[in-house]
Every structure is written in C-alpha cells, then in structure tokens.
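Researcher: Next sequence.
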Amino acid sequence: MTTVVLIEPEKEENIGRVARVMKNFGFTKLLLISPKCSHLGTKAMALASHADDVLKKAKVGGKDALEGFDCLVGTTAILGTDSNVLRSPLLPREAAPLLAKKKRSIALLFGRESSGLNNEELRQCDLLVTIPTVRNYSTMNLSQAVGIVLYEVFVASGREHAASHIRFARRKDKDILLRQVYSALDPMDFHTPGKKEAQRRVWKRIIGKSFLTKKEFMALMGFFKKIRT
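Model: Next structure:
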C-alpha cells in the first residue's frame, strides 16, 4: 500500500490539490510531516473538491512517522552526475512497477514547494524518482508532480479505470473493414485507374493508423454494407 507523504508542505491550496489528484487515481493515504499550514483549512478543503475525505483521514506527524514503512521513495528535480549515486533517480514509468506492488508499505515522499527534499532526506530514501522536464525550468508544482507519479503507478497496477470497458478493433477487424471499403469502391467510376488505386491507398492508411473501437468498427461495417445494397 502506497502512502503519499508531503514533507513540510507550505500552502493549504497545494495540500488540497494533492488530495484531489490522489483520489483521481485511487490513493487514499496521506501523511503530512511537520506541515506549515492546516490541511483542514478553508482553502485546502475548497481545492480538494470532492476529495475532502482524503484530507479528513490524513495523518500528521514528525519524521519518526516514516520509520514504519518498508520502502521510502523520494522525488527530486535535481539530477546528479553518473558518479553521484544519490542523484541517479528512475523515471516515474521505470519506478511504477516497483511502487505498484501491494505487499510492501511504501512511502512516496514529496518535498517542500520552495526547496524540495534536502540531501539528508534523499539519503534516507531507498529509491529516487524524477520527472523529466526541460533543463531551464525543472521544478514542478507539488500537485502536478504528485499527479504524474501516481498516474504511472495507477497504470502499472493494472487496476480497472474509467476507460476499461472500451474494446478496440484488432488487426483482423481492420482488414475486414478495408475489404468492405474496397468492395464499395470497385463499382465507382474514376477518371483513371490510378485515381481509384490512390483512393484504396488512402483508405488503407486511414484505417491502418486509426484507433478504432469495436463499436466504431461495427458502425463503419454497417455503413459500407448499406451503401453497397
């Protein structure tokens, strides 16, 4: 089970936004280490929207509250050299399969809005994660960073999501649809054989690179059958 840990958060608004994005991806455990503001304040509650339950259940403590976790995962925007092991983090997508394992209690640490995690806090972590950004502006808003990491963990966990019910057309479905298109094109008159062949190539490209759902595939099949009758 993963717990999102905010180290000395400074603004109510950011705590509220973090709670909201946590709930988006099914995370409910929030630990605040020595917060500089109230997580139950008006601004935090307002920006949490319908995730106020995450705030109400959040725990507050000192750094000793981290001692009960099996694994501490720190986040950092500052990268080191190849020789600096401390500053050699994984990308969120690389770390996500490890973080998605439910048998360990994992603390996912995010630092202060103004300065992030300090070197001592990073040294205590078992694993470091960084989000790739442009070099000249690498520091992200706290809730944005939390959202990106939790998204990757959510995807890696294989949990059911809002789009889980959507089924996509397979390659053989596209081949069947393409044959229907060709059958519809065959009786049509074109100025030259080359123009008809060009149409065939265009339709092949369109169908080939499309992400058709099964529902869309069936609708198109019905349409092309209809125009042939």
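Model: The CA atoms of residues 189 and 196 lie 8 Å apart. The chain has a mean pLDDT of 88.
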